[in-house]
Amino acid sequence: MQRELWASVSEGQRRAVLINAFLGALLGSMNVSSVVIALPAILRGIGLSINSSIGFMIMSWIMFAYPLVMAITVALIGRLSDMYGRGRVFTIGDIVFTLSSLLLGLTPGYGTIAGIQMVAYRFIQGLGGAMMFGNSAALITDVYPPERRGVAQGIVGISFSAGSVFGLVVGGLLATINWRWVFLFNAPIGIISIIWAYRSVYRLPAGFTKAKIDWIGASLLTISLVLLLMGLMLSMMPYGGSSLGWGNPMVWVLLGVGGVLFASLFIIEARITEPMLRVKLFRIKQFTYGVVSSLFLFLAQGANVFVLSLLLQAIYLPLHGIPYADTPLWAGIYLIPSSIANAIFAPVGGKLLNKFGARVVSTIGAVLLGISFELLTLLPITNFSYVWFAVILFIMGIGSGLFQSPNLVSILSAVPPTERSAASGLRSAMQNIGLLMSFAIFLTLILAGASTTLTQSIYNALISAGVQPSYAAKLTSIPPVYALFAAFLGYDPIETMITQAGISLPPSVFSNIDKLTFFPSAIAQAMSVGFYYAYHTAAVLAIVAAVFSYLRGREVFHHQAVETVHAKTRGEVKITEQANASDPIRSNGFSSNNNDIKADPILRKTYAAYLLMNTELGETVLSNITDRELVYAIAVTSGLPNWFINFVNSINDCQFNSLTIESLVKYVSIPDWLNEVVNNWLKVKLTNNGK
């Protein structure tokens, strides 16, 4: 009989798992923040121009490929991890991630060819990341007892925050030397992580089950997300005389088909015997509200580092005299307060979890994030005080730190141990979907806001610089998406258009346009509208996350009877006291009788057996359930008529046997928790009869 893994591992093994999860989170967070901050240097280094559709698409896929693959594969990998072992899959993912980082750093070629190769390597890197990050939280939950999980997850949260800090600074610094080192820097840490993982995590017990791979679910998820992402990308491209592409029929076809396929995914997964996405877990209220809350929070903050980096590198820093070559480093330094606060408050959130519960701590964290986003809208994007900017970022980091660890522990503790990788994978999939959609939503809002005044802003700037009105009119046809990313990448598209159009300007006028500050100041007013749209929306999404976090109610930790195990209390009274909770899978509970677990001593005893099933008391408690008590529980929970329940109460135990119970459960519908009890009770009886 499978016991909780944490009950049998040593303290040394726990430390080894924690170190691996720490290194994995460090690698992953460094990879995200360093690539975002160094993206201008990377694209300049491979000579990729975004003044064309293919250039813009390649740049978008370099950003989106990693989280897209994470979103597509992490749930499937969670299922594979349940089958073959979380430690093994984690270690293989470590290897894949490190090798792909080397490939990215050594990418040959130039221009479009190099860009396409980098997109392919980012897909591979996303696969490795999914194999690591889809298991790290589940491994922590496996090897640490419930009362220590919050702190352990908080330590991993420190790693994630530290990685964000290092990624911002190291990525910005390395970008000023050579963009290749942004990826090659991962290799030494990756090699250390691989060696450590193989010596410790890889040797943890293998999976709980053997199952089939859900290729239908994987295909639907892949196709739907790719279509949705492509539709959102096309919406940012100019079409038919419009600065944005919402008039393009293909945009609506892609979004419509992608949306229908994504919705159908959950319907189909609910009917598949062994699904990739364990939709039945959404019957658990605590799990559902935690995952939905996490989804909305990632929608709110997933693209935050990128958007703030865009604001700093495209507008604020050049306007304050920072050369484009140095903007990645300074942008990284400017964004440090958020990561520091996150690193400080992630373990604090874990400790507060034990005292107040995830409902309180995570909700406060989400509210603080919403407040910080709204405060950002009060800052003028061209000339704000860094002190106030740093304070807002610090509040943002506090909110993120308080939310993540308690919410994660609440989600994973709500499900059985055999479902933790699947639950972790489902949570990670929803988070990565939120991350992808966050990028698309924020960029769309920024560009939509900018498009209303961009042409007039550039025209006014050109006239102020001394350009003739007829020439200025020719030079104001720049689509918002090109204008924004041109400034982000550190060049002035107006100069390119002047050359291409063969326009000759007096030296004094051209010198006005050739200044570092000209183009950022020309687009700043228009872009400020878009940034305000984006952060008002982010604030609303964060508050929605807070609402869902609060609605999860009081947490019920799966296998709450651990305190009884620790105390070595084997009395039935103590055991049944741990079962005074309703069926966690609420929609699969009782069908017609109004009995509940608290009111019925036999149901309470049976549910206690379910809670204790994977502990050292499990077999003892199951053995103490009589034939009649089990049949009674089946009858009550399946909604059989009262005359049958009265009949069960009036006869002797010996008139029921295992064959009778097996036959009965084939023809009635009982809750999942009771089905587990029945199956394990039959195994115990078979074992005892064979002795």
Automatic annotation (TrEMBL):
SUPFAM superfamilies: MFS general substrate transporter. InterPro entries: MFS (IPR011701), MFS_dom (IPR020846), MFS_trans_sf (IPR036259). It is found in: Cell membrane. It holds the Pfam family MFS_1. The chain crosses the membrane at residues 21-42, 54-77, 89-111, 123-143, 155-175, 181-201, 213-237, 249-268, 289-317, 329-348, 360-381, 387-412, 433-454, 532-551. Residues 17-557 form the Major facilitator superfamily (MFS) profile domain. Gene3D superfamilies: MFS general substrate transporter like domains, Multidrug resistance protein D. Signal peptide: none annotated. Keywords: Cell membrane, Membrane, Transmembrane, Transmembrane helix, Transport. One of its GO terms (molecular function) is transmembrane transporter activity. It is a multi-pass membrane protein. This is MFS transporter.
